[in-house]
Amino acid sequence: MSLRCSVVLTTRLDTARIQAARRIIDPVFLHTPLYRCESLEPELGCAVSIKLETANPVRSFKGRGTELVASRLAEVGPPAVVCASAGNLGQALAWSGRGRGLDVTVVATRHATVAKLDRIRALGATLELVDGDHELARDRAAAIARQRGIRLFEDSLDIETCEGAATIGLELVDDPQSFDTVLVALGGGALATGVGHVLKELAPDVEVLCVQPLGAPAMTRSWHQRRVVTTESTNTIADGVAGRRPIPAVLDDLLVVADDAVLVRETSIIAGMRLLLDHAGLVAEPSAALGIAALLEDPDRFAGRHVVTVVCGSNVDATAYHRWVRPTRGRGW
Amino acid sequence: MSLRCSVVLTTRLDTARIQAARRIIDPVFLHTPLYRCESLEPELGCAVSIKLETANPVRSFKGRGTELVASRLAEVGPPAVVCASAGNLGQALAWSGRGRGLDVTVVATRHATVAKLDRIRALGATLELVDGDHELARDRAAAIARQRGIRLFEDSLDIETCEGAATIGLELVDDPQSFDTVLVALGGGALATGVGHVLKELAPDVEVLCVQPLGAPAMTRSWHQRRVVTTESTNTIADGVAGRRPIPAVLDDLLVVADDAVLVRETSIIAGMRLLLDHAGLVAEPSAALGIAALLEDPDRFAGRHVVTVVCGSNVDATAYHRWVRPTRGRGW
Asked: Which of B281, B315, B327 sits opposite A322 (nearest CB)?
């Protein structure tokens, strides 16, 4: 890793711009809790800190990025924007756009988490549903942007999404604690490349470990093969990271900043959500439990280390969530 | 209320000391999330903001106060301290004392929340259990302090507990949003008098509304009758506020700073916990759901207002919590 550190980072991100972003983003999304969570540690066998991105008006980290784009659109236009979203980006864009008088359209799959769709509508955005998966929603958002001549906002490709996520990295680096590993959910790659860029530039000894579900492995496979690998379908409850077509420019950045990318099973994601609820008092959506899932699957790898996991969202459908976390027989009922 | 504002506040608290306290308390307990939570609002009929005190190493606001006393003990001694606790104060004192090499003893009732007792032990404190309720634990802690010649740390009576809680008030006042009402859990009174003092001094138009369970009404009855009223017993799941013997000096302060004190039913506390979980993605222990319970019981009182409720703790036993929040028939199962 020290060899890698000695070279200048060649990603699309720029640390000075990320630092400047902190002055643009609504403070309600910044300086989120970061704390050691010892009650998780007996089950996980390593020191665990939580970076909590759920205690804000949209219950995910996505507001950091949508604040940047909405602020720029409010200044220089156009005053209308469309994005495809599994639900969290759309909710955050709706929130940031509403406060600035922007016309926001969100395209999502009909199979998305209902609570996310309800919140997008409640925040005043136009919601269009497609009969298909997230990649179809991406295609449809692009078509709408072309037809209407409005801004297409693309998660992970558009630099604001990465810069917003990267401000989490600044907060990790600012903390007086030192970490061995940062666990980040891997989907389109904005969170991983954003956080990873800052860490590799300012704290290069910290391992950046990306975690993706086995049921949606496109970006992880791409990272390992150093070329874009797509998949035919996805099959995971972690809706927030269920892409099939990695974006080449994002993969390029990820190859620079990630130390490793691992895949985890659905049962581990559920166990992770349950552990966060029962031992840390935290609601995590499936994508936000990927880090804990990785710790559960490979305890030897992390033994004796201090890891921080980014709990990146808590938007769940209540019914599904109760089913995931309800105690199984023999666990006290 | 404007008449009340024109007089100098005559409580045991001092705003300059509270401001100074922020420089002593570990930052992990400060500047906690404060955000509008619109997803709660359709059910509650008013604008609701959350002040979240659970995303820290001890999952309650109590660390703010224990940091103050532990810091002073580490400087001037004695190096040993004992407190009675329903579990949150003891856990926080254990945390603050461990970092400063203090000898911490916690006395609790044998019927306390098991997760709280486990955390007190895990943090290295000596835990002594009594066969009785919280008032017996208070008596026993006082006896230990006399016998061993160590510091007795008394919740709500000792000014550090009130000053620590009062730093929450500073954060509320610092926020650019304006609130009509602040809902605080009422137990011994540290939270209510601390937050109340700051609000009445710096934002006197904000209503300070204390909420206590019908099953543990001693301080609320005392406030209404303007004299100490004790009760024979308590009967509530809100263990964090289940006292029977209000402290006269704390009642005196509460009479100065509280605008009202109300009692809520157990069913409303449970409904509040469920609402916070299902609509806000937040785990609240019963005491931390008292504010939402008050909103549920008297929606007309709050219609059209902007309230902030302090979610003051999330330490629950997993088994009991799952029982409280599990969906009832007809709610999606």
From this structure: B327
